[in-house]
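Reader question, answered in our methods column.
A reader sent in the components of a multi-part assembly and asked whether the whole thing could be modeled at once rather than chain by chain. We filled in our standard form and ran it. Here is what they sent:
COMPLEX SIZE: two components
ENTRIES:
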Amino acid sequence: MNALALPTRKAEAFRYSDLDALAGVWPVAREMVSVAAGDTVAQAIVLTEAQPTARHLVITLAAGASCDVRILNAGSAFGRITVEARLGAGAQFTLGAAQIGGGGQTLEIVTEVAHDAPDAISRQIIRSVLANQATGTYLGKVAVARGANGTDAAQSVRAMLLDRTATANAKPELEIYADDVKCAHGCAVGELDAAALFYLASRGLPPATARKLMLHAFIAEAFVGAPDEERLLGEALDRLESIL
Amino acid sequence: MLQIHNLHATVADKPILKGLSLTINAGEIHAIMGPNGAGKSTLGYTLGGRPGYEVTGGTVEFVGQDLLALAPHERAAAGLFLGFQYPVEIPGVSFVQFLREAANAQRMVRGEKPLSGGEFLKLAREKAALLKLDMEMLKRPVNVGFSGGEKKRAEMVQMGILDPRLAILDETDSGLDIDALRICGEGINAIMRKPDKAVLLITHYQRLLDYVRPDFVHVLAGGRIVKSGGPELARQLEDEGYEAVAA
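And here is the structure of the entire assembly that came back:
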């Protein structure tokens, strides 16, 4: 792909994008992150400001390196974050992301996690809460190279739609060329569990409080174990408050 | 306290309750028994206001209010507690977290002062001890990973904390071993056997009634109460079966 030409919808990674908004921030500079052998890096990307934003991270993990990326994608009419990660032998990569949108927001997370060498571990947890006309997209590919045995990759993708008019797109994808691997992916788009809401209401919780409590728990899953878990969760809950 | 008059209710357009009438006064413990499919759980859910349980006729008055006009959380604030046959698991939400909010939401409706964190924990600890449930379990996500018996004891702890006027307990005895049955039975007596409170026990079996002696026993069949009596009726049912007694 020519990095400078504005993509069209024919490009799979941009199929659900807001191309008009994208044009305003195109081209998107690659941000290179390199984690040396045995090192640990943690990074948090918080998009809560008003202007359309697109970011593109390219992370290279050397053998035994570890990288923890957390994303709160909740700010503007258009927020798009692409994360490419290449994992060396025994590397560990964690991505925890929450997308919280209302109005006509288009929020996107696109990932490609490449297990190039044996025994690396990747974990991706994506939680989206979408209200009104918002669109939340996760396109995530895990590619396991030939010979990358002992790979352990997991993707957990869930979206909660608060209104019938909101849209969630989710495409967890696995491309596996090695034999001895453990790859799990789960994907669900839904509404809050009605049985749980009734249970909470039967104890005296007003419906709005019960919904909020359950959404807090849902979003919190994206930030469990992050070095700045509390700050991220706090900001996420502020955003949640604004779309409820 | 509770007057149910000619209650009709449907679930997914299927009539389940077909003219059920029942009066429960303060200080009384009632047991409703009946075969599978008689409408026992539907009665509990309908009184609790569960979405999908539609009232198509009749009235329910609870402490002077039209119960059916209230939303589920308002029914709780009015003093109704529903003990679930299958308590729901809620990942990520702890008992102490939601129960304090629930208790204080109820108190606010009643014009009472909210409980502080310390006051709430003291109360929760006291009720957990009563039901012999480890306080640490109340800090875990609601019912997640709890055994059947732990779930039912946790229901009774919640009842103790929320201190309702009327408890409707749907098969609290199912899934309990003998010790847990005794603990739950004693818990119900300690929390609810008071002159200003009442209990409606929904059960299949006599065994819970050995611990919580009912003042009245009713047989529910075909969506209405077909027979009422004292505690001896439960024994008769156990000996002779529903078919013989309810016929």
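What stands out: The interface with chain B takes residues 193-196, 198-207, 209-210, 213-214, 216-218, 220-221 of chain A (CB under 8 Å). The longest strand of chain A covers residues 151-161.
Send us your own complexes using the same form.
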